[in-house]
Amino acid sequence: MLRACRRILRPSGRTAFFTIHPAAGLTRAQRRRASRDGPIGVATARPYWQLLQAAGFTQVTETDCTDEFAGTTRAWLHHWDANHDDLVALLGEQAVAERQAERRAQLRATEEGILARSLLTACRPEEPHVAGAAAPSRPGGPAVHELDEQDVRGQDYDRPLPRILGKRDVT
């Protein structure tokens, strides 16, 4: 999937995503627990920064957001408990109980250093452009043209990405 993401980015385009992953330096038993208590994607064989590099990305960065994630999870637990009856009426008792149990297990694993949450950013490398060459085309699609910074809703791709953490970071 990361290779597909790299292919659709323009040269020097950036990608950024949050992910929950096993913390570094875990024992085999702790990795099994991370897989059990974390989301499905936690069971990766290698760290995400290595997967990004293997997919051909450059300028890979990882920012630890574990403390903010734990705070967000605590807030979710608190608000779901405070609105339990309304949520049960909407979703059913079993769904509410299962989701809260999953969040509690994930929070315990996070607080015990088993799970971590990170923001990863990476760039698609610049590709040499041959003067006078036609723009490459996508199979079954239109030609791909170089975009300047103003072509994409005025986004400035040379500025660093903003750090969006805390209560807005919801899983």
Mind sketching the topology for me?
Layout: H1 2-8, E1 14-22, H2 28-37, H3 48-54, E2 58-64, H4 66-82, H5 84-91, H6 93-111, E3 115-123
Antiparallel strand pairs: 1-3, 2-3
Keywords:
single chain, alpha+beta, elongated, Rossmann fold, 6 helices, 171 residues, 3-stranded antiparallel β-sheet, 15% strand, 3 strands
Structure description:
The protein has 171 residues and is α+β, with helices and mostly antiparallel strands. The chain has one domain: 3-Layer(aba) Sandwich (Rossmann fold), CATH 3.40.50. It is built from 6 helices and 3 strands. It has a 3-stranded antiparallel β-sheet. Helix 4 runs antiparallel to helix 6 and helix 5 crosses helix 6. The chain is elongated and about 55 Å long.
Task: Indicate how many domains the architecture comprises.
Answer: 1
The assigned CATH architecture is 3-Layer(aba) Sandwich
How many strand elements?
Answer: 3
- In whole angstroms, the N-to-C terminal distance is 20 Å
The CATH topology label is: Rossmann fold
Strand content: 5-15%
Q: How many strands, which pairing sense, and closed or not: the largest β-sheet?
A: 3 strands, antiparallel
Give the averaged pLDDT, no decimals.
Answer: 79
Strand order of the largest sheet: 1-3-2
- The helix-and-strand class reads alpha+beta
Q: Please tell me what the overall shape is.
A: elongated
CATH class: Alpha Beta
Q: Could you list the spans in which at least 5 consecutive residues all have pLDDT below 50?
A: 133-171
Instruction: Return the string of H and E elements.
Output: HEHHEHHHE
How many helical elements?
A: 6
Determine the CATH superfamily.
Vaccinia Virus protein VP39
What percent of the residues sit in helical stretches (DSSP H or I)?
25-40%
